[in-house]
Amino acid sequence: MQLSDIKSVGVVGGGTMGFGIAINFALWGYPTIISDLSDEVLAGTRANIAHALQLFVEGGLITQPRAEETIARITTTTDLAQLAAQSDFITEVIVERLPDKQDLFQQLDQLCPPHTIIASNTSRLVLSDIGVHARRQDKLVLTHYFAPPHIVPGVEVAKGPGATDETFELTCELLSSARKIPIRVLGEKSGYLVNRIQHAMAREASQLWAEGMASAEDIELGIVSTFGFRMPHEGPFLHYDLAGIWKWPADARNPHAIENEKLREQMLKAQPWFLDPANFEEAVEKRDREYIRRLKELYWKDTDQ
Ligand SMILES: NC(=O)c1ccc[n+]([C@@H]2O[C@H](COP(=O)([O-])OP(=O)(O)OC[C@H]3O[C@@H](n4cnc5c(N)ncnc54)[C@H](O)[C@@H]3O)[C@@H](O)[C@H]2O)c1
Question: Rounded to the nearest whole angstrom, what is the distance from the C-alpha of residue 95 to the centroid of ligand 1?
Answer without folding.
Answer: 4
